[in-house]
Amino acid sequence: MSVQRFTVSIEGRRIGYVEGALAKKLQPVLVSAVQNGWCSVAKKVPCSKTAIVYHLSSPADCFYKEFLSRSYMERIKAFFKVSRSRRYIKQTELLKANHFNSPEVLAAGELDGSEFVVSRAVPGVSFGSYLCALLRRPKDPEHLRWKRLLLSSVGELVGRLHAAGFIHGDLRPNNIVLEVNNGLPKWFLIDNERNQQCNSLSKEDIVKNLVQIMMFHSVDMTLTDRRRFFKAYFENYSPDVDCRELEREVLEKVSKRLKQKPIVKPDVDEVMAGAGDFPQAFKATEKASE
Predict the structure, then answer these.
(1) Cα separation of 157 and 104, whole Å?
(2) In a 3-state reduction of DSSP, which class is residue 132?
(3) What residues form DSSP beta bridges with 120?
(4) Which of 51, 143, 195, 277 has the highest count of CB atoms within 10 angstroms of its CB?
(5) Helix 203-213 to helix 243-258 angle, to the nearest 10 degrees?
(6) 132 Cβ neighbours under 8 A, 6+ residues apart
(7) What is the edge-to-edge ordering of all strands in the sheet holding 176-181?
(8) HSE-CB for 191 with a 13 A CA cutoff
(9) CA separation for the pair 58, 123 (Å, rounded)
(10) Can you name the CATH fold of 5-120?
């Protein structure tokens, strides 16, 4: 990322700074957001309680992610440890160096005391929302084949991720973005600031990631679907534990957690809004069954 750095000011009062390839063009957008509210320049995107995310269409199709302080100690720790925005950038670079896809970071900085990063939007859809919206009950053999391909492909992705020594900080299904490239799935990992890369993965961390990615009700991911995922996963990563026992433990934890999670009916049009070059057959606008 470029190191160009610009001060963000309102009537001579410094309110932050921005640096990176998009910094100069982003500077007036940040000022407008502070003066007139973010709704005047961007659309808010649902995310965790520890951040705020906005989708910007100008000066580029990108996402602004602001990191909220989880405690008063966090700012103190930032003086001694790498900040969350710097971790985000570092982990993005590590993933790319290990042949995984992650959105390009265009800018980073600080605004009104909170750190932020700006990353380029991927012309795809969130995996979790897409699976529930269009593939809840595949309507024909073509959709069923596509669903099976996606589940095997994402199992391969997670297996490769663990084989490379990465534990994702939050591997919930919507933190994997699906793009279609020449009719095949291409995956992007997002929300990477809490990722870790180490020589040996603990069973606890492996289980945590596998439970996160499998948080689908049976109407969206059947037992057969889950086994298809595990088959691809174990073909790409051989953990130093009994594979059958690992699978059993993960499925038990998933089952217990799903009892507290309602089945949500997705909005197909909203899910597919940023789909990009998807095969037309998989951009259907009919609503998924409950």
Answers:
(1) 19
(2) helix
(3) 62
(4) 195
(5) 50
(6) 216, 220, 264, 266, 288
(7) 125-126, 176-181, 184-189
(8) 20
(9) 16
(10) Phosphorylase Kinase; domain 1 (3.30.200)
Closest CA to 26 of 84, 105, 99: 105
b/e string for 157-194 if b means 16 or more Cβ within 10 A?
Answer: bbbbbbebebbbbbbbbbbbbbbbeeeebebbbbbbbe
pLDDT at 201 exceeding the cut of 50: yes
CB atoms within 10 A of CB 197: 14
Q: Which CATH code for domain 125-282?
A: 1.10.510.10
What is the spatial distance between Cα 56 and Cα 88, in angstroms, rounded to a whole number?
Answer: 19
Distance CA 177, CA 100 (A): 12
Query: For the chain, what are the domain ranges?
Result: 5-120, 125-282
Task: Using a pLDDT cut of 70, give the percent of the chain over it.
Answer: 88
Length of the chain: 290
| Rounded Cα distance, 184 and 153, in Å | 9
- Give which of 271, 274, 234, 276 is closest to 135, Cα–Cα: 271
Which conformational region is residue 204 in: left (phi greater than 0), alpha (psi within -120 to 50 degrees), or beta? alpha
> What is the tens place of the pLDDT at every residue in 70-108?
665 555 555 556 688 999 999 999 999 999 999 999 999
- Reply yes or no on whether the pLDDT at 274 is more than 70: no
DSSP state of 131: H
DSSP for 194-214, written as a single string: T-EE-SS--HHHHHHHHHHHT
- In the chain, the amino acid numbered 210 is L
Q: Is the pLDDT of residue 287 over 70?
A: no
Beta strand segments in 11-167, E: 13-19, 43-45, 51-56, 62-67, 105-111, 114-120, 125-126, 166-167
